[in-house]
Design brief:
Helix content of chain A: 10-25%
Helix content of chain B: 25-40%
CATH superfamily of chain B: P-loop containing nucleotide triphosphate hydrolases
Strand content of chain A: 35-45%
Largest interface: A-B, 28 and 36 residues
Shape of chain B: globular
Structural class of chain B: alpha/beta
CATH class of chain B: Alpha Beta
Distance between the termini of chain B: 30 Å
Number of strands of chain B: 12
Radius of gyration of chain A: 21 Å
Oligomer: heterodimer
Strand content of chain B: 25-35%
Structural class of chain A: alpha/beta
Largest sheet of chain A: 10 strands, mixed
Number of domains of chain B: 1
Number of strands of chain A: 20
Chain lengths: ~425, ~250
């Protein structure tokens, strides 16, 4: 047994029992599955390069503190409305501002659990395979916080909606959040997700989001993870796209001790398209462990995945990019590019692109590289007067800029600027 | 301005400069000519401080200061500029931004005020007129996709903008057609001044038709074996390096 799992199992007793028997049953089943499967280890392919051992023997208490702490949050860190804010893992009515946008409906999971519409909670019944356990199962077993976001049919939300998770020091606390985003037929939304630490934030956060894009829906989704160095994050995003839906997603990670991100994208409808960009910039002794999995399940769908990893100091960036083109998903157009920079002599990068094709007339390309900053370019910049650190930063920024292309235009980058981690701060004009 | 005394330098452990000595005064243009493998480009890199190019003995004095231990950016701030034989393409970094950052980094290192974008743009326009350089190149990534001629013009444009005290031109003529060569030479000539020195490294005499040197040095196997006036370049062109090298022995 693992001290970690034991400590999490003990938390289930502290949950407010749900009035819905199905929810109670799902929670119990999920916990049983997590305990049966046990804590993962490095012999499992999916967990090969993640530093799991220190975590397995560590206990975490329930870290979701009550709303009395909302006012202690530094509001200057918050993006403008419309925004949905979670403070220390709990929905904050005080800081959430939605501006009554037509077509946008938001409910907290806690509110839905206390409500009378059981169907709203069906997504909690999602079954996970044993290989997906224990972290996804633990989420089902323990999450009573989260956001349920609905964008009505044909609704076009013109301004970006911010989804903010801000936390303060909760050493050895663990938080579970479960979200659902439904973009109904023909709707359009830009969602910007912020994971922010304030004053010595520590602890573990496990988040799972279900995303559904209806026919012709368009979603632009930026996720900015800039947690404090001691934090541990398990993040999973499952998106399903209907016909002609378009999902543009940008993941930016610069913080945390261990940040595991599983991104599962299903192209279920014809001509659905995904563009996914990522910048993983790990420093100190961080490990970023990203597992990207795209399934082409319908004809003429496309995915363009452009991920860049930068590992400095003793940091580690692990990337797995899997594309599965199922039988019948003919005419697929899939491209995966993963390039990585080693910036420190003890830094480590592991990258594995994987392509499985069972369809006809498929266009598929993938490539992965690991390299260092170009000495010649570095010398060229320095010979013109740029100090070494500035030259390295400029070259690093030029290196990852490609991941933003086509997803974040100048206007969006300008808007994001105050909320980007300092390491990514740049003169926008400096990059082509 | 520049005093190089019995300089020995290695590249990745291999000795390339073997007792190189040169004295270059402000206002003068010296040409370094030599066959392939003589160590001409190494000299340029050693003077500008490239990593991996190590001075094992001898001195490099720039206005009396020993610069052998300085970083490339420190030498740049002192006023040393190397126009590259092969200017490096840097995709993703905007040329204008690069130039402004470089200029301001140098100004900051020298304790001068940094230029704001308006003042910088004014300076750029003024310097652009010196060279036949399309300002479209300024909006692209540094040297990225530039033709050979455009890259070299961009080097000379940087020279004009950064206004160094010592400009080292490393085979700036290589890969240029005659029009580009003239344009580049005109740019260099416009920059000649009593307080600026040039070290023009070249393989062929051709460039020296347009940039008239005060002194021509012949470099073979890591050191200077002969020096003379501009006529030495013509002699080299006629007789080749072998005969000069033989005469020097």
């Amino acid at each position: 047994m693992s001290a970690f799992l034991d400590s999490q199992a003990a938390q289930q007793g502290q949950l407010k029992p749900s009035a819905f028997p199905s929810v109670q049953a799902w929670r119990a089943q999920a916990l049983a599955q997590a305990l049966r499967v046990g804590f993962p280890h490095n012999k499992l392919e999916r967990w090969k390069y993640a530093p799991l051992r220190p975590l397995a023997v560590k206990s975490f208490h329930a870290g979701t503190t009550d709303t009395g702490t909302d006012s202690a949050i530094d509001t200057t860190l918050l993006p403008p409305a419309p925004r949905i804010v979670f403070v220390n893992g709990r929905f904050s009515a005080e800081h959430t501002q939605l501006n009554d946008l037509p077509g946008l409906q938001v409910q907290s999971l806690a509110e839905a659990l206390a409500g009378d519409d059981e169907r709203r909670l069906n997504f909690l019944g999602r079954q996970f395979s044993d290989t997906e356990a224990p972290f996804a199962s633990l989420n089902t077993a323990l999450a009573e916080q989260g956001a349920l976001i609905d964008i009505a049919e044909q609704a076009v939300i013109e301004v970006p909606l911010h989804l903010v998770f801000i936390s303060q020091g909760a050493p050895d606390g663990s938080r579970y959040l479960r979200h659902k985003l439904d973009c109904h037929t023909g709707s359009q939304l830009t969602l910007i997700e912020h994971h922010i630490s304030q004053d010595g934030d520590a602890g573990l956060c496990n988040q799972l989001m279900h995303i559904h894009l209806g026919m012709q829906a368009r979603l632009k989704h930026i996720r900015i993870q800039r947690l404090a160095a001691p934090c541990i994050g398990f993040s999973r995003n499952d998106a399903v796209l209907s016909s002609d839906a378009s999902y543009q997603r940008m993941d930016i990670e610069t913080g945390g001790h261990l940040s595991r991100h599983e991104l599962n994208l299903s192209l279920q409808g014809e001509r659905a398209h995904i563009q996914s960009g990522g910048v993983l910039w790990a420093t100190g002794s961080s490990t970023f462990d990203t597992r990207l999995s795209v399934r082409h399940q319908a004809p003429n769908a496309g995915c363009k995945l452009t991920w860049r990893g930068l590992a400095d100091d003793k940091a580690r960036v692990n990337f797995y990019g899997g594309i599965l083109i199922e039988q019948g998903a003919d005419g697929a157009d899939a491209a995966l590019s993963n390039k990585n920079l080693l910036l420190g002599p003890q830094a480590q990068v592991n990258t594995q692109p994987a392509l499985e094709i069972y369809a006809d007339e498929v266009k598929a390309a993938h490539g992965a590289t690991v390299g260092q900053l170009d000495d010649a370019a570095l010398f060229y910049l320095r010979s013109r007067g740029l100090p070494k650190a500035q030259a390295e930063k400029l070259l690093s920024q030029a290196f990852y800029a490609e991941a933003f292309e086509g997803i974040a235009d100048t206007a969006l980058l300008d808007a994001l600027h105050p909320y980007l981690p300092a390491i990514l701060h740049r003169e926008q004009e400096g990059l082509t | 301005m520049l005093e190089i005394k019995n300089l020995h330098a290695t590249v990745h452990g291999k000795e390339i400069l073997k007792g190189f000595t040169l004295s270059l005064e402000a206002g003068k243009v010296h040409a370094i000519m030599g066959p392939n493998g003589a160590g001409k480009s190494t000299l340029g890199y050693v003077l500008s401080g490239r990593e991996g190019y190590e001075v094992t003995s001898g001195e490099i004095l720039f206005n009396g200061q020993d610069i052998a231990g300085l970083a490339p950016e420190e030498r740049a701030a002192l006023g040393i500029f190397l126009a590259f034989q092969y200017p490096v393409e840097i995709p993703g970094v905007n040329n204008t931004y690069f130039l402004r950052t470089a200029l301001n980094a140098q100004r900051k290192a020298r304790g001068e005020d940094e230029l704001d974008s308006m003042a910088f743009l004014k300076l750029v326009r003024q310097k652009l007129s010196i060279l036949d350089l399309k300002d479209e190149l300024l909006h692209r990534a540094v040297n990225s996709g530039f033709s050979g001629g455009e890259k070299k013009r961009n080097e000379i444009f940087q020279l004009a903008l950064l206004e160094p005290k010592l400009a080292i031109l490393d085979e700036t003529d290589s890969g240029l057609d005659i029009d580009a060569l003239k344009a580049v030479a005109e740019g260099v000539n416009a920059m000649r001044s009593p307080d600026r020195a040039f070290l023009v490294i070249t393989h062929y005499q051709r460039l020296l038709d347009y940039i008239t040197p005060d002194i021509v040095h012949v470099m073979v196997q890591g050191r200077i074996i002969a020096s003379g006036g501009p006529e030495l370049a013509l002699q080299l062109e006629r007789e080749g390096y072998a005969s000069i090298a033989a005469a020097a022995h």
